[in-house]
Amino acid sequence: xxxxxxxxxxxxxxxxxxxxxxxxxxxxxxxxxxxxxxxxxxxxxxxxxxxxxxxxxxxxxxxxxxxxxxxxxxxxxxxxxxxxxxxxxxxxxxxxxxxxxxxxxxxxxxxxxxxxxxxxxxxxxxxxxxxxxxxxxxxxxxxxxxxxxxxxxxxxxxxxxxxxxxxxx
Length: 169
Hints:
Blueprint: E1 4-9, E2 12-17, H1 32-41, E3 46-49, E4 53-60, E5 63-73, E6 77-86, H2 95-112, E7 116-126, E8 134-147, H3 150-162
Antiparallel strand pairs: 1-2, 3-4, 4-5, 5-6, 6-8, 7-8
C-alpha cells in the first residue's frame, strides 16, 4: 500500500500518495502521470493527455471518443465535465431555455456531488467541408469539482462517464 502524504493548500489539506517528480504547487507532490497511471489501473481510458489535463475517453461501439470529462491538475486537482443540449432538437427554443434544461437536469445531480458550474457557452458546430455552414448549435454547461486525492478522481471520473451528458429539450 502506498505511503500517504499531506500537502497544505489554500482551502485545506490535499492527501495523496508519496510524492513523485513534478513542477510546482501540487505538482511538486503529484504529477499528471501519477493521475494517468491511477486511472489506467482503474480501467479508465485516456483520449488525450496534455501537460496539466487528461481528457477521458469513452467507447461508442468500437470507436474511442472524447467523453467531455477531464481531470485537471493546475494548482489544484479537479474533475470537470460538459453537458449540453442541441438547437436542432428544439429549433424554436431560446438559448436561455436550452441552458435552463441542462442546469435543471444535470446541474442538480452534479450539485449533489459537490460540482459547481464553471462556465456556459454556445458552440457552433460547423460543417468540416464548408466552414461557413453551421450544422448545429450546442448549449454547453461545464461543471467542476475540486478533489483531495487521486482515488477521488477515479471515483468522480467513473460517475461522470456514467452520467448522460446530452439533455433532450
